[in-house]
Amino acid sequence: MTDGTPTRAQQFAALVVPAAERAGYNGHGAKARFARDTGMTESSVTRMWQGNAVPDARFYDAISQATGIDLGTLLVEGGVLSTESLQSLSETDRSQVGSALTPEEAADRLGIRDDVGRELFYATIERLKRLEVDTPDDRSDRGGTAAQM
Length: 149
What we know:
- The chain is mainly α.
- It has helices spanning 8-22, 30-38, 42-49, 60-67, 71-77, 83-92, 94-97, 103-110, 115-133, 136-142, 144-147.
């Protein structure tokens, strides 16, 4: 942007690239390994790392797993969810999460209308459910989800 404000792609790169490097994606072949591990093309990874493009939302879960960045943070930084939408689910509607609220109703209440965004949201819910199936005591021994990557 001409006013010096970083673009969404630049903000996304500023978040993802250092985390990817901390996760071991540095040196020769780093972008190729990141592409392989996330399912992205190498050219898409290059554009993302340069701050020229935000990846398609379908890759956010894989990026989250590869970098250890919270998926909600990626969704907000990538423009799929607003900060208010994410906070709404995590704070205001906390009492609804364990009740009869369906993923579809949650997506509606959060204002997620885009088909890709909704599918990503549903996949995130399923991933979280699978994490809950693991015995919680075992997670502390392994150092948490980020340490497992």
